[in-house]
Amino acid sequence: MQLPEPAQPLLESELACSSDTPSPVNPPVPILSHTVSSLPRPDISVPRASPLQWSPPTVDNPYGSDLVAGGVIGGGDDDNDNDELEEGAPELEQEFMPWSDEETFGGEQETSHVTDAGASETAAGDTRLPGQPRSTMPMWLKNDYLRVRDRLIKEMRHNSSRMPTCYDCYTFYDGADNCFLAARASYDGLAAGIFHQPQYFVWLPHLLVDRIPCPACKEAKRGSANKPAVYLQKHGFVDSPRRVVDVDRSIFIIGYRYRCGHKGCRKNYQSWSPSILAVLPDVISDQFTFRLTYRAGLTDRLAMLLREFSRGGVGPRIFTTVVQALHYRCFDHLRCQFLEMVADHSVGSLGDCWTSKKPFGEFSDREGYAGYVPSSGYFGRFYDMMVEDEAPELQQMISSCPASILKHDHSFKVFWASLTFVLRVQVSFLSLQVIKRMKKQGGVAFFAALHTFLNEYSEIRGMTFTPSKAHDGWAPVLQAILPSLRDYGHSEPKVVFTDNIRADKDRLLSIFPSLSAGVTPIEPVGALESLALPSDWEIVHLTNTHQVNLRFNLIMNQHSDENPIIVAFGMQWPVNTGTGVSGRVALLEFAYQKVVYLIQVCSHIHVCEGNLISSL
Q: Is 114 exposed, middle or buried (0-12, 13-18, 19+ CB in 10 A)?
């Protein structure tokens, strides 16, 4: 046997044999997570299959099943995230529109939401390669689902608990947890399909409760005196499972259909319908850990990562590359296990019999692994959907915060704010400027600034986009704060900090009369008496270093831990009122025992070389 060179790991074509033609150079494949070590190279006399007989005609895309293999998705600046969200906007809007409880989804789910900014469009809104099928669902899913469904029916019929075996094993998931052990126990252990087996989530809530009330009838308050509630009837398994994306793989949900028998309703539901989840007890509905869109969805784990990435300043474009890397890592790990098993069984006289007749395949091969990762546009819209769904709770929390002290200001360099409310309202900023990306009319943005109101705990109490700094832009939001303070038993604002007191004073007093309660207005400056020192006070100018050291050494000699001295101190420096630029400190002022000492700093700079005098 001839061992391969360390820098040239064996390819799948070298481990497959079913043809009489020698194997040409294999097309590029994604780099494996680890190299297949010490694999014996099959004898060159053994006929090998040409990769063109089993590989797809197009080059496999290393960045996702529906994405064009072009530039690196995560490369470059993340400023293009907004542009990606706009491409394919109509199809993305369809994906995130409300879907009916009675709507069914076939196994050949359309992936119209899977678009990407780097894709070259072959038709309006279509980013597929020429000849590439629109669906990314596995070709084998229909038959595999029918097999699993029949098995579940038999298990529920024969098990003493009348539940699927996975429920008896205290899990909602059906399928092999470890593909290696499943392949090892299988007769055809080297079949690549064993490593392609999906993970199913069996969601049959009617087995976990006595009866499920009809959501429509419950809302319409249908029923009778004998039967105050109308319950749903079982109507069999769904025609095809739903695919959702997890952190490193896809999961398929097996559901059940229900029908209302009331003559005034006759509605159909599926077990994952939002209406069904809403009428189930919380302890049951909490077990459904997925967030679905029109034809796709994400697990709660991946949705949580999306939220935290957005809070941390990572846009959907970079997040997509992270998810793609995790999915490819899982794919590479399974493929390495498969190749290692093939290499292990190929040693010996029976190696030809054990050698796999079908290679593992590529990531996006619909007849094989059928890997799938949504586009960055989908993740961006999904995050928007999560924020919009939680908007009532977020607004409720904002309204419950106190506002005894308020501070407000405009921000003209606004960044895309991901508002996350955890005990306190926090704002995390991404590197995308909102103002320049908002809708424009004639090249001019509708809004010019973001006006924010914070309370004494630096919690956001209000926020609004404004076209200018005019009061009409932010005053209505501030007026809406007062009723919520009364509803939650908070006191009205006592102090409001602003950067333009003269312009904002009258408007703030009209909104919050409490600001003037118990306040004595200060007379105009011209009407005030000039401040003068008492007659028994003395002003002393210290003009040289000797005078400064002498005076302050005498003062410090009176200081002790038991009797510390108290000295008043002040500084003055010039400020250019036109530019706002401040100059160096020009005058130091000290007051001690009815004596005010004045020290002109400029007269001592050349003596002390820019540092303070030693006694100071």
A: buried
Nearest residue to 330 (alpha-carbon basis) of 287, 294, 371, 295: 371
The enclosing H or E element of 201 equals strand 199-202
Residue spans per domain, the chain: 59-103+120-389, 400-414+433-516, 538-608
Are the C-beta atoms of residues 48 and 13 closer than 8 Å to each other? yes
The average pLDDT across 193-208 equals 88
Is pLDDT at 79 greater than 70 in this prediction?
A: no
**pLDDT score of 188:** 55
Token output for 340: 């290692």
Q: Which of 321, 300, 464 is nearest to 382 (CA)?
A: 300
Distance separating alpha carbons of residues 563 and 559, to the nearest angstrom? 6
If one compares 498 and 70, the residue with the highest pLDDT of the two is 498
Instruction: Write down the CATH superfamily of domain 538-608.
Output: Ribonuclease H-like superfamily/Ribonuclease H (3.30.420.10)
User: Tell me, what amino acid is at 338?
Assistant: F
Residue 348 or residue 137, greater confidence: 137
Residues 6+ apart with CB under 8 A from 150: none
Query: In angstroms, rounded to a whole number, what is the distance separating the alpha carbons of residues 116 and 83?
Result: 10
Average pLDDT, rounded, for the chain: 74
| CA dihedral (358, 363, 365, 369) positive or negative | positive
Which 3 state secondary structure label does DSSP give 339?
Answer: helix
Of 346, 371, 372, nearest in space to 361 by CA:
371
Residues 290, 325 contacting (CB under 8 angstroms)? no
Cα separation, 371 vs 364, whole angstroms = 5
Please count the other Cβ atoms lying within 10 Å of the Cβ belonging to residue 475: 16
**Which span out of 40-54, 316-330, 343-357 was modeled with the highest average pLDDT?**
316-330
Contact assessment for residue 206 and residue 233, using Cβ atoms and an 8 Å cutoff: no
Which residues is 497 bridged to in the sheet? 407
Average pLDDT over residues 341-363: 67
Q: Residue 231 pairs with which residues in a beta bridge?
A: 213
The residue length of the chain stands at 616
Q: What is the dihedral of CA 71, 75, 76, 78, to 10 degrees?
A: 120
| Mean pLDDT to the nearest integer, 25-30 | 37
Q: Amino acid letter at 101?
A: D
**Summary count for the chain: helices (H), strands (E):** 18, 21
CA 137 from chain centre, in angstroms, equals 25
Is the pLDDT assigned to residue 469 strictly greater than 50? yes
Cα–Cα distance measured from residue 241 to residue 105, given in angstroms and rounded to the nearest whole number: 8
Cα 512 to Cα 108, 395, 398, 489, 499: the distances in Å are 60, 21, 19, 16, 18
Q: What pLDDT, on a 0 to 100 scale, did the predictor assign at position 1? A: 39
User: Residue 409 carries which side chain, given as an amino acid letter?
Assistant: D
Place of tokens 């529109």: 97
Q: Which two tokens stand for residue 234?
A: 């079982």
Q: Yes or no: say if 546 and 604 are a contact pair by the CB < 8 Å rule.
A: no
pLDDT digits (tens, 9 = 90+) for 263-290: 888 889 999 999 999 999 999 999 999 9
DSSP letters, 341-383, are HHHHHTSSTTHHHHS-SS----TT-TTTT------HHHHHHHH
Structure tokens at 523: 């007379």
CB 435 within 8 A of CB 412: yes
Crossing angle of the two packed helices 316-345 and 376-389, in degrees rounded to 10: 120
Note the helical H segments in 25-132: 81-86, 89-95
Q: Give residue 305's pLDDT.
A: 93
